[in-house]
Amino acid sequence: MDKNKIAIADWALQEALKAGAQAARVELSCISNLTIQYQDTEITSLLSSDGCGLVLRLFVEGRYGTYSTNRLEQKELSTLIHNGIACTRLLSPDPDRTLPDPARYYKAASLEQNRDEMLALQSFRRSNPDIDATSLACQVAQPILGTDPRLIHLSTYLANRYGWQYMADSQGFKGYSCCSTAAAYATANMQDEGDSRPSDSWMEYAICLDELQPLLPDLGSKALKAAQQRIGATSIPAGQYHIAVEPVCLMKLLSPLLEAMQDYNLHQHRSLLQQNKLGDRIVSPLLTLTEEPQRKGAFSACLFDFEGVRTEYHPLIQEGKLCQWFISTYYSNKLGITPVLSGANVLCIAPGQQSRQEILNSLSDTILITGFLGGNCNDVTGDFSFGIEGQLYRHGERVQGIAGMNLTGNVLQLWNNLSHIANDVEKLPDGYFPTLFFSDIQIA
Q1: Residue 271 lies in a domain
Q2: Final residue belonging to a domain, choices 197, 228, 259
Q3: How far is CA 170 from CA 57, 60, 186, 416, in A?
Q4: Which residues contact 87 (CB under 8 A, 6 or more apart)?
Q5: pLDDT of res. 217
Q6: Dist CA 444 CA 442 (whole Å)
Q7: Residues 120 and 203 in one domain
Q8: Alpha-carbon separation of residue 153 from 127, 196, 223, 389, 392 (angstroms)
Q9: CA atoms of 281 and 214, how far apart (whole Å)
Q10: What pLDDT, on the 0 to 100 scale, is given for residue 341?
Q11: Which of 110, 238, 399, 411 is the most buried (most CB within 10 A)?
């Protein structure tokens, strides 16, 4: 927390009000990024950056404008503010653009208390400065080089990001948030027969480099094993199969549901849930999906959203029934719906009782999807077609790798065919997900 920069943000807010804005919000962000890329043990890219930026949201005579800068001197900000207000006056009126009801704000006695509560969520930790990130990334490939003559090369990507944000508005809200993420993934490229060059990756995530470090010694070998299973991968006969979806790629199937719950899609009549009401059963009763923004240790844990509204636990889908829409202040005004939460931060799917292997053992031909390759989904109808890659299992035994196949169908029908949920919950940037199984799914 840099009090000097916070003081500049507070000054900018007051200056906007003095210059003619009826209401305003200021958002100050300071972010540090480090990214490193290796091919085998040779570094190919190293990027490091530190930056601060300020966003002004101005409400002027029933109109709304957004302006940003990374120049935080008062003289520069004063010019931006006065020009921004003049420009905003030229825009069309938008009376639905308002600040939230102050009763919904997150409140703390002081920024220091706010910071302590934020740190208690354990979503931020600055990495130990003695850790050499370049050495960590270099060591990923060393244990596996030369272990398989089919390995062409192994690429490693490591990123460390941390930062903080301060937000204040003209209704008295002041809030501080911070987060950090360390991630690494390795991609093994293999030589197959002919010109085929199959590859696969493995990813690890942590709050900081200290927590990521013990996960890296096995990263290369996991990527190699995944790529080895891609060798000889072929298509299989089209038809209906059981499918299992690994947690790391589950958002591909979950995103259409979440998008259908968003206020802007509801307003524009582009939601596949347009005809549904809260309380309707929309998917299999096996699915319970919750929003847990203050879950300790989650990557995106937060005390308030982008409007300053306090975050809370919310069931989104309870045993298959729709429980909540994502409604921000703006679309609340447009739609005449009470605002609750503006979007998802930490999604959690309730796990089942059996392990993934136990479920695989009980099923006949099952495709374990380990990655999606492009595709599209119609926002209104929910019809989709996604390219897939993965493994074919038969009663728990791996049969072969799969390539050149498409997963097709309808989003709601797919989720109504949810048949099993494993107990192998993984902590990922989007939330906490287990392996999900679906029955009678069309593969082409």
Answers
A1: no
A2: 228
A3: 11, 13, 47, 46
A4: 65, 67
A5: 93
A6: 7
A7: yes
A8: 29, 14, 11, 21, 26
A9: 43
A10: 87
A11: 411
With a cut of 50, list the residues of the chain below it in pLDDT. none
Domain enclosing residue 158, as ranges: 3-228
410/381 Cα distance (integer angstroms):
8
Amino acid identity at 9: A
Q: What's the confidence (pLDDT) of residue 23?
A: 97
pLDDT tens-digit map of 291-325: 999 999 999 999 999 999 999 999 999 999 999 99
CB proximity list for 174: less than 8 A, separation 6 or greater: 111, 114, 166, 167, 168
- Residue 411: strand, helix, or coil: helix
What is the per-residue burial (b if ≥16 Cβ within 10 Å, else e) of 191-221? eeeeeeebbbbbbbbbbbbebbbeebebbbb
**What is the pTM for the complete model shown?**
0.93
Structural domain contains residue 286: no
Could you tell me which residues come within 8 angstroms of residue 404 by beta carbon, excluding any fewer than 6 positions away?
Answer: 234, 235
With CA atoms as reference, report the closest residue to 29 among 53, 1, 57, 56: 53
What is the model's pLDDT at position 196? 83
Residue 237: closest CA among 402, 67, 414: 402
pLDDT in tens, 38-60: 999 999 999 999 999 999 999 99
276 to each of 253, 271, 279, 326, 341, how far by Cα in Å?
19, 10, 9, 14, 19
